[in-house]
Design a protein that fits this description.
The protein is mainly beta. Helix content is about 5%, strand content about 50%. It has two domains: about 100 residues, Carboxypeptidase-like, regulatory domain (Immunoglobulin-like, Sandwich); about 725 residues, Maltoporin, Chain A (Beta Barrel), CATH 2.40.170.
Length: about 1000
């Protein structure tokens, strides 16, 4: 087995390097960022072959890029960095034409069609301005933010990732998050699966192998960002997944020295209060508040050797401290009763240290090398306080320190038609998670099921949560890629390969391997855990091979490509030493969990409607695989499939909170005055015969991996200078869903019943309606669970379809004003009307929510007088869905079930009182404003900024209580109150 793995790994890497060599030697296969293309004609309309086109810009270390028109008068200048360009057209016998003021954003093809008049003498015709705003050749849909925009609008966080959330079409976003938080990771784009956010630096992944294919412990420093693009649709064959992909183009430096410095601060004195009486009447007694936030960063760049070697470096130190509403320090953290000290609210603190450097070397006119290194940290003091029902002593200190990202990219313009690129990057993650220093090592965590806050964990991190105990996560990720582009006037042919490998080690230790469950301070049960744990998962490899062509025929450009994806993961052999309750354990390696192969076509078409470059019609249809990292491998690790936790009843006869019975004895036993029941699973520490298994057609094969198709249709219109409008329709549908089948039961093992909804004016029609379609397993099958994950298609057809419309604009005015953003209206409809086990699956199986608006707009306006500038951000997002989970007693069920619940006469069942996707709270709205005063001292620009966030002091609810009762719909999370941040920015 080991030799087979080694041969496969060797073959993968050998193939990679062979492809690099192949690309270098043969002219048909790279990654181009932006380009300038078009047709050159004379004044009679005849095409002109052999015209020399020179694109010059200060952002090019080589100063100039030169190509020639082909026999059809077509040309294309590839691999241009974003910035301002001058393009010169020269041909003997014709006047030289110079186009100036061409602002080229990232991943954009600027179409410049030129007419060259005949000239008997040397003559130059200069045209200034009129930069294209409509890309008539690419079908890629994206939003582009330049550095001057990133620096000048209020965000609350000096990281470009925060601006992802300002993209129309990005949903699953709340307004109540800490400034600088990682909320963008769970965001969704046009119905994509949340968590598929990818951040790339110059096209290279800068994400760790986390959930959904993209976890981001790195927090990027805005000081080194030249430009950022957020892809919103129609990705080329180079991309694996169809979610959000944000590409950061870092600064390279230049022949002139330049730099920046930023410092921003806010604290509790600069914050308002949005806890209204209405919210207090709904049961909310406190809201989260900023304690202190600061953000300091710098950037510096310049020449090492003029025109040959440039450098840029930057650093950042940011800190965010915020109270967590409703959670307080324990008056006595060693006591067995949680008694909150209301004068000491819980604090969630996040720190972001960062340092990076980039070196750009123009080896000669054809070859360029870029080297980038980043050391970034992400430290959290109070991990788990937001989103988990735990007291501060049960939270953790988590440090992603260090995160190391390194990148080397070589680009070569071998001829005016052939570009080659090869790159290598590595990403090292080290996350340590531990209890607070004031928590004694002998402390045992406790869960109080009654009391002031039912279900709260206190005293120490809870052993019942994998993410709550002391843990270490190590990840080593390697990415290598090579690609090449061969260009004729009409064609841009590109092919390439990307190989990613990941090695991940996760370890954990749960304090005393104990957790007590209490009712009103009295022990009722014990949780025993079998730590330490250790898991090694590997991705070997995540391989993508693609080829694509951009073919222009008159006004029509066809974008066609295909991508082959191969994903294989495994788990390594594991030896665990003897633990407190269980002996030493050994687990074998598991191969091919999963082993997937997919072919994903990509097709798009762009049409220049009137041939003027002002109106483009675009359509695309693309297939993507779902993001995957080590989730499936982890789920199939023998440790995961073993029994690592058990519970047992406990009567603490002498009230000393020390189990006097023998906890190593799995059977019921008595010690002193204490009585301990039998453990919940006698396979404790062993393989679980009833553990969830995966069907072979889920784990292995061609075309079995989860996927989604995306289709789009867009109209882009140039309105006037540097202003465009885009209207688009987007559709996404997914496939290869998985379901969990309990092999111990069949649909015939369930009996139907109904429940009458309570009478309550807050419910639809005042409540009192009957809810049927509910089922309970027969008593003979109660508690029998043998689960297997299978393809949903084995039972029926499941659909998940997103439909949405975007209307967006991008405008830059002559006075420097900027207006960007727009509105998205969309919804995701699901249908899973088939039965796997319980016929209750047919209840609410067809959900079609209403279309909901999502508005994201930002703008910058330089006031004509006094050096004052005003900028702002407006967000209007859908309110949270309103649901109601009602706990019905056995007595309520008995009349229609005609027997007791399978869980017994004291059992309960949870019933949805409101159909999902039918009721929503009001939209949430927030307006943020920045006032800037500018000063100039020679080449130095100094800005004094005052940012006001949530200027209307809105208190829209972001999360409701969904448990039906007196507290139903009570607010759980609000927008942050209005607060002010003061800052200064210095650029030179």
């Amino acid at each position: 087995m080991a030799s087979r793995i080694m041969r496969a790994a060797t073959l993968a890497w050998a193939s990679f390097f062979a492809l690099i060599l192949f690309f270098v030697l043969l002219p048909n296969v790279i990654f181009a960022q932006s380009s300038i293309a078009g047709t050159v004609r004379d004044t009679t309309g005849a095409v002109l072959p052999g015209v020399s086109i020179e694109a010059t810009s200060p952002v090019l270390i080589e100063k100039v890029r030169t190509v020639h028109t082909d026999e059809g008068g077509l040309y294309r200048v590839l691999d241009l960095r974003p910035g301002g360009y001058t393009v010169t057209f020269t041909l003997s016998g014709f006047a030289t034409v110079r186009r100036e003021g061409i602002d080229l954003p990232t991943s954009f093809t600027a179409t410049l069609n030129v007419e060259m008049p005949v000239a008997s003498l040397a003559e130059t015709v200069s045209v200034t301005g009129g930069a294209p705003t409509v890309d008539t050749q690419n079908v890629l849909q994206q939003r582009v933010l330049s550095n001057d925009v990133l620096e000048n609008i209020p965000s609350g966080s000096r990281t470009p990732q925060a601006f992802i959330l300002l993209t129309p079409g990005v949903t699953n976003v709340r307004l109540g998050t800490i400034p600088g938080s990682v909320a963008e990771l769970g965001a969704s784009l046009h119905g994509a699966i949340g968590g598929e956010s990818l951040i790339t630096i110059d096209g290279d992944r800068a994400v760790s192998g986390g959930a959904g294919g993209g976890n981001q412990p790195l927090r990027f420093n805005e000081a080194y960002v030249q430009e950022m693009s957020v892809r919103t649709g129609a990705a080329s064959a180079e991309q694996e997944v169809g979610g959000i992909v944000a590409n950061i183009i870092p600064k390279e430096g230049g022949n002139a020295w330049s730099g920046s410095f930023y410092a921003g601060l806010t604290d509790a004195r600069l914050q308002g209060d949005n806890l209204t009486q209405r919210l207090k009447d709904q049961g909310l007694q406190d809201v989260s508040r900023i304690v202190r936030n600061h953000d300091i960063s710098f950037g510096l760049g310049g020449p090492v050797i003029r025109n040959t070697v440039w450098f840029f470096t930057s650093g950042r130190s940011a800190n965010s401290r915020q109270t967590v509403a409703g959670l307080y320090l324990d008056t006595d953290p060693n006591d067995w009763v949680y008694t909150p000290d209301f004068s000491k609210p819980a604090i969630d603190e996040v720190r972001y240290p960062d340092a990076n450097a980039r070196l750009t070397w123009q080896m000669n006119q054809r070859n360029k090398v870029g080297i980038f290194m980043q050391r970034s940290g992400y430290g959290q003091v109070g991990r788990g306080l937001s989103g988990q029902n735990i007291a501060p002593a049960a939270s953790r200190i988590a440090n992603y320190i260090p995160n190391l990202f390194g990148q080397v990219i070589w680009k070569s313009t071998m001829t005016s038609r052939l570009l080659v690129e090869a790159g290598y990057s590595s990403f090292y993650v080290d996350r340590e998670q531990r209890p607070f220093p004031y928590v004694p090592s002998e402390a045992i965590s406790a869960i109080e099921v009654a009391g002031l806050i039912p279900g709260i964990a206190f005293r120490a991190p809870p052993a019942s949560l994998d993410d709550a105990i002391s843990a270490h996560l190590y990840q080593k990720q390697r990415d290598a890629k090579a690609s090449a582009t061969y260009v004729t006037g009409a064609h841009s042919i590109k092919a390439g390969v990307a190989v990613k490998t990941t090695w991940e080690l996760a370890t954990a230790k749960a304090g005393q391997d104990l957790q007590f469950t209490l009712r009103n301070g009295v022990p009722i049960s014990i949780l025993q855990t079998a730590t330490p744990w250790e898991r090694i998962q590997e991705i070997k490899p995540n391989l993508g091979v693609f080829a694509q062509d951009q073919w222009t025929v008159r006004r029509l450009t066809l974008n066609a490509g295909v991508r082959y994806d191969y994903f294989r993961a495994r788990t390594a052999e594991t030896h665990l030493p003897a633990a407190r309750w269980v002996p030493a354990r050994d687990f074998p390696a598991v191969e091919d969990v999963p082993n997937w192969k997919d072919i994903n076509p990509r097709l798009g078409v762009a049409y220049d409607l009137f041939g003027t470059g002002n109106t483009a019609l675009k359509a695309s249809l693309n297939r993507y695989v779902n993001g995957e990292a080590t989730e499936t491998a982890s789920a199939n690790h023998p440790l995961t499939r073993s029994v690592v936790r058990v519970t047992r009843n406990w009567t603490d006869g002498n009230g000393d909170f020390i189990p006097d019975c023998d906890l190593k004895n799995p059977l019921a036993n008595t010690g002193g005055s204490d009585t301990c029941g039998i453990i919940s699973n006698l396979n404790f520490g062993l393989n679980n015969p009833n553990a969830t298994t995966y069907a072979d057609d889920v784990l292995r094969g061609r075309g079995v991996r989860g996927y989604n198709w995306t289709g789009s249709a867009e109209v882009q219109q140039h309105l006037f200078a540097r202003t465009s409008l885009t209207a688009g329709y987007y559709r996404r549908w997914a496939g290869n869903f998985q379901v969990t089948d309990n092999l111990s039961v069949t649909p015939g093992d369930f009996d139907p019943f109904c429940v009458t909804a309570p009478l309550d004016t807050r419910l639809p029609n005042g409540g009192g309606y009957q809810i049927c379609g509910l089922y309970d397993v027969v008593q003979a099958k109660a508690g029998q669970v043998v689960s297997r994950v299978v393809q949903a298609g084995s039972f029926g057809k499941r659909t998940q379809i997103y439909d949405g419309f975007d209307l967006t604009t991008s405008a830059r005015f002559a006075n420097g004003a900027v207006l960007n953003g727009g509105m998205n209206i969309g919804r995701t409809a699901t249908n899973s009307c088939f039965v796997v086990d319980s016929p209750q699956a047919l209840l609410n199986c067809d959900i079609t929510p209403p279309f909901q608006p999502n508005v994201k707009i930002f703008g910058i306006y330089p006031v004509p007088l006094w050096g004052v500038q005003i900028s702002g951000v407006l967000q209007i997002i859908p309110g949270p869905e309103i649901t109601a989970s009602y706990v019905a007693s056995n007595a309520e069920v008995f009349p229609t079930l005609r027997r007791n619940l399978a869980s017994g006469p004291t059992g309960t069942v949870t019933v949805p009182l409101i159909k999902p996707g039918t009721l929503y709270a009001d939209n949430s709205k927030q307006l943020d404003i920045r006032f800037t005063k500018r000063f100039r001292l020679d080449r130095t620009r100094i800005e004094a900024n005052v940012d006001i966030f949530n200027i209307m002091n809105g208190s829209d609810v972001q999360v409701h209580n969904v448990n039906f009762g007196t507290g139903w719909l009570g607010p759980r999370n609000l927008q942050l109150p209005r607060y002010v941040m003061v800052s200064t920015q210095v650029n030179f």
